[in-house]
Amino acid sequence: MTTPLLQVRGLTTRFRTERGTVKAVDNVSFDVAPGETLAIVGESGSGKSVTALSLLRLIPNPPGVIESGEILFEGKDLTKISDAEMRAIRGNRIAMIFQEPMSSLNPVLTVGMQIAEPINVHRGTPWSKAMEAAKALLEKVRIPDAAKRLDTFPHQYSGGMRQRAMIAMALACKPRLIIADEPTTALDVTVQAQILDLLKELTRETQASLILITHDLGVVARYADQVAVMYGGRIVEQAAARDLYKNPRHPYTRGLLSSVPRLDGDTSKRLVPIEGQPPDLSRLPAGCSFAPRCKQASSECLKQQPALRERAPNHLSACILDAIQ
Amino acid sequence: MPSNSVHPPSDELLRVDNLKVHFPVSGGGLFSKTTLSVKAVDGVSFALNRGETLGLVGESGCGKSTTGLAILRMLPLTAGRIHFEGKDITAQDARRGEFRQRMQMVYQDPYGSLNPRMRVRDIIGEPLTVYNRAENRSDYEDRIAGLLKTVGLLPDMADRYPHEFSGGQRQRIGIARALALEPSLLICDEPVSALDVSIQAQVVNVLMDLQDRLGLSYLFVAHDLAVVRHISHRVAVMYLGRIVEIASRDDLYQRPLHPYTQALMSAVPVADPEIERNRPRMVVTGEVPSALKPPPGCRFHPRCPMVMDVCRTVDPVLNEMGDARSVACHLHAQPVHLIRNAVPEAVSA
């Protein structure tokens, strides 16, 4: 196997809240190989977005803090470097695409300036040259009439075009890693397909790695190579996408797959919901955080926290029942 | 699993004819006197039978929610007629009309649609109070306990406030409130889209069980094609204020005829990497145009991969294709049908 581009080891991020400190991300480890797409799936509060923000050290402090762990990227531990060094990586070697393009674009700057800015900042390219590069990038993300669109403002763009502009901005400095946090959740399905196809195509072209954060199991199936399933701040299962869908091991993954209706599903079968609700991070149970909703849970599950271990070749799961089998 | 698909329901509960809802907006410059109108719903017709679920799907701005609100008369109609339980309710007042007791709404947002200062008892019981349905205090309490049980909640939850419940439970409270007056029709506007994926199935199952037990009809408005497929008997696809295709669930999903329906289906990924890799993909370009200035001819033609010359100028009518299926597309226009159906629509186009 090639050396991973990114190695995350034991990442733990805490938030201080009125109800005590909360571990939003708890001892999370994963690798991303060059050119690979890793999907992090989970429901709200599972810690998937906080994981993404932690990688870029964008956790608002206070109340949040990366408590422990290593984030190894291109030979550096991102948790240890200075703020200036981190700024040199952000938007340059690692780029981020957010969910809501309207609130992540600056409303008073033209789209062209926003795409050119990282080129100017990180490369020292003069503005006139950077604007030319921005035009080429807008063409690359297939915005029609790019030259004219360069001088217009985000509010003059449609939702899909804004997300295209975000992708252009992310690609500006040819990053090695792109983190996309629910990049299409705010968009309609036909536009979602266009944007994700484009993102996948451009990352393939530039051999960049992609971390795709989503709650949509269909999107994961279509675009991901590797999948990490998060629940209650921890990774509960991790495998290659094909393997995960074919042989889901963790009861939560299995539950999710059978509770979500599919376009090709058997409509004569009743959906099997996961009873209960996602956990409150400030009141996590002592043992497995999924145990209160798990049909197979035993008293043992409530006592000890299961470790994420390799249960089959390259297939990790955090369930003590899996160990017994 | 609509179990009553074995006994197809036949009697008509709701009929909507050529429904139009236009919103005037001031057009042009600041001092311009011209007014344009957003044609949110522009000539929608369909029927819904007793015990049936009709799914209404489409992307944002297609007019699906507006259609639901217009049927409830929560919006003024620009044109069209609505028949409900055999009566023409077009002229009835939304606030005092008798039909509003028989037709209720389940909202999308389980947080915004429940008053945070009211106890669950009073939220569910308010319709009973408004319409004086409870004989006395104990009858009132009994009914609330019964409604809570009906949606899978516990009777002693009546004393609590909405913030003490999860999203899925709140949505059940919203359903219990909608059921209080024993309606025959529920208009559900994206009832599960605000919920976490592991919770959606709970609410879908509650709705399906209630239909089996109470014979309710649903107009199920949603953008999630997989959820709609699971719960609906028939499905109508909307695009820019019009129904472009309406058919039985299986006909529509197995053999979509309208290119927009095909594009929608193909855009939704299936949660299985192996199937997903071999699925034919049909990607449409561009985004939904403004309803202020819908394109001439077929409204989908600027994005349609199968566009023909006729599509740019002639607005296709919703054509009956047999099997209770209708499509508005020139690819599927049959001359005979064209002549029979074309007259009123063609004139207005």
Would you mind describing this structure in some detail?
The complex is a heterodimer of chains A (325) and B (349). Chain A has helices spanning 48-55, 83-89, 101-104, 111-123, 127-140, 146-149, 159-171, 189-206, 217-223, 241-246, 251-259, 299-303, 320-324; strands at 6-17, 20-32, 37-41, 64-73, 76-77, 94-97, 177-181, 209-214, 226-231, 234-240, 309-312, 315-317. By secondary structure, chain A is an alpha/beta fold. An eight-stranded mixed beta sheet of chain A has the order 6-7-8-3-9-10-12-11, sandwiched between helices. Chain A has a four-stranded antiparallel beta sheet with strand order 2-1-4-5. In chain A, helix 4 crosses helix 5 (127-140), helix 4 runs parallel beside helix 7 (159-171) and helix 7 (159-171) runs parallel beside helix 8. The mean pLDDT of chain A is 92. Chain B is of the alpha/beta class. The longest helix of chain B is centred in the middle third of the chain and has 18 residues, at 197-214. Chain B is globular and about 70 Å long. Mean pLDDT of chain B is 88; it is low at 1-9 and 336-349. The chains are: A alpha/beta (325), B alpha/beta (349).
